[in-house]
Design goal:
This protein has helices at residues 2-16, 131-143, 149-165, 195-202, 231-234, 264-273, 307-314, 345-353, 358-365, and strands at residues 22-26, 34-41, 43-48, 51-57, 61-67, 70-75, 78-83, 86-90, 95-100, 108-110, 113-119, 122-129, 177-178, 220-221, 257-263, 289-290, 297-298, 304-305, 321-326, 329-335, 343-344. The chain has 368 residues and is of the alpha+beta class.
């Protein structure tokens, strides 16, 4: 028994060493120069180096601005300018809203600390937050509201695994992960789904590992359209646990099927721009053969367009679709939403509705 405990402790040691707060780039792809921070609970002490500049109390606001290589903060009629970095440090009871200037998104509610720094002539805000609080925010942003607890447990485990396996992804920009789909969508503290925090606590510290006890790449997508993809069919190489499988759970869910109508002139122009002899194809059905999601969308033996490129160019939900012509329009009818590798979220939601527990759902989509 002692030997088993020793082995388990040895395996857990690397995971437990990741207990430090993580750094999340907020609106990381935006180009704004100014943002307003409003403390809604507790207080935030703003530091420049080791010195406190100001203390923002509940109900108070401050404006943070970047210019050139410096960052400034305007508070109660006074401007504190010329700093290379500012840190808003908080307690566990503090909450604050962040309102970027000129952004169309609504104000988001955050916990943890706030770091402001200039990057490439713009303002970069970073949320320094405990891992489990970050996971709870990802659950709501990625999973939505109104689902079963077992599904939120699934999302908690895969989001935690993904985060830990991708730490330092944006280290050169001064944070670990961004808050967009490039990493995982994170919009601050859950505001609509109370079960997100409950599911996080219920699965605290649980991650998914492969047979060699290495964190897996816990990829997920909205809907696979009835069949998940092998990793090598979408990306560069096979992964032992990312193996395609038939999925009947998602086929009656909202994102299972889609249709997009494109003007035939637009379609022809797209084919021509991709060096396809579109005149011979413009009025034909059934000449398009999908080989597999990663390689080719065949037009004929001499010309092709990669499916991933078509999905991006034409803003399609997936790479699984057929093409038919109808008068002066081209109809694309497709299945699924996303890259199709790993866990199918709507399939997992349906499995939870049917009574499967979260470990059953995880092992259904990730092999071994």
């Amino acid at each position: 028994m002692l030997r088993i405990v020793s082995i388990v402790c040895a395996l857990l040691a690397p995971i437990l060493s990741w207990a430090d707060p993580i750094l999340i780039g907020i609106h990381a792809r935006s180009t704004y120069m100014r943002a307003t921070v409003q403390v809604t609970e507790g207080a935030m002490d703003v530091y420049a180096g080791d010195s406190i500049l100001i203390s923002i109390k509940k109900g108070q606001t401050a404006d943070i601005t970047a210019s050139s290589s410096k960052v400034s903060i305007f508070f109660q009629g006074k401007n504190y300018s010329g700093h290379s970095k500012l840190e808003g440090r908080t307690s566990s009871l503090t909450e604050f809203k962040l309102i970027p200037s000129g952004q169309k998104t609504s104000a988001r509610l955050y916990t943890g600390d706030l770091i402001a720094q200039p990057i490439e002539g713009r303002l970069q805000l970073v949320n320094r937050i405990e891992l489990e609080n970050y996971v709870a925010g990802v659950i709501e942003a990625e999973g939505g509201a109104g689902h079963q607890m077992e599904y939120y447990k699934v999302q908690a485990v895969i989001s935690r695994t993904y985060a830990l396996n991708n730490l330092k992804r944006h280290q050169q920009l001064g944070f670990d992960l961004c808050d967009a789909t490039h990493c995982q969508v994170y919009q601050g503290r859950p505001r609509h789904e109370s079960q997100a925090e409950t599911a996080t606590r219920a699965t605290e510290d649980i991650v998914i590992v492969d047979p060699e006890i290495k964190l897996i790449t816990a990829t997920f997508h909205s809907n696979c359209g009835g069949q998940t993809n092998n990793a090598e069919d979408v990306w560069s190489k096979p992964v032992s646990y990312l193996v395609g499988r038939k999925d009947t759970f998602c086929t009656r869910m909202d994102q299972a099927f889609w249709t997009k109508t494109i003007a035939k002139s637009t379609w022809n122009e797209y084919l021509r721009n991709n060096k396809v002899n579109y005149e011979n194809l413009a009025s034909q059905d059934g000449v398009f053969l999908v080989n597999n999601p990663q390689t080719l969308y065949w037009i004929d033996s001499s010309a092709y367009i990669p499916l991933r490129k078509m999905r991006e160019d034409l803003k399609l939900r997936s790479t699984k679709f057929t093409v038919t012509h109808q008068g002066d329009q081209v109809i694309l009818r497709g299945r699924g939403f996303g890259h199709g590798v790993g866990l199918c979220q709507e399939g997992a939601i349906r499995m939870a509705q049917l009574g499967f527990n979260y470990t059953d759902i995880i092992t259904y989509y990730y092999k071994d």
